[in-house]
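Good day; I would like, with your permission, to put a structural problem before you. What I wish to show you is a protein chain and, alongside it, a tokenised description of its three-dimensional fold. Here, with my thanks, is the record as I have it:
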Amino acid sequence: MNPRFADRTAIVTGASRGIGLAIAKQLVADGAKVVVTARKKEALDEAVAQLGGPEFALGVAGQVDDLDHQAEVVERAIDTFGSADLLVNNTGINPTYGPLVDLDLGAARKIFEVNCLAALSWVQQVHQSWMKEHGGAVVKVSSVAGLRPAPGIGFYGSSKAMLNQITQQLAVELGPGIRVNAVAPAVVKTRFATALYEDREAEVAADYPLKRLGVPQDIGGVVAFLLSDEAAWMTGQLLVVDGGVLLTGGGLAKPQR
């Protein structure tokens, strides 16, 4: 076991599967204890088992944008494992597709609340309860959709652009004791992104210089690096992890309609 996160506790939101679970697995492999969140307890119980059981992981079910849930997660992390040193804001939603002029504003508000406001309030919670006194590191999972127009998912992309700005602002405000960075994936093979590549993976991957789509482990390793002391002189940065697709003028594939 790599000891680089020995005696540190990480909170990873949206970690019952996909990118969040891959991040949690990498952190445990590197010596951390992890607290994982998601909406469904059954899925979290399965994730905790994959992470090695209660000696290494704790699952706390709830809505990511619920302040009481956030406070409970941070409190239980500290009570169970003794600290709350690392935070990964992984949860993101996109319940709508289409042009902005037709966007349901209720859906837009929910995207903003989960992708932006909750990503801020989690930092507020962990800062108040632990990091203000002890320091720490935060990584936010953004998207290449936040870097250029993304047809059909424009408000999701706009929320990620705001998340990138929040990352930089927090980095300025919370240094030197707390580092805040972000990672921006392109299409990663998860259930969340299935509509972007299902039944046409080879066609989508052809635009990528590395000729494949991402897998959750590709993101887990980069997030672990940003949280680690190896990135001790990095803050406010957005690392693009995209298989080179932005170099070709590509980005997110359009969902099949």
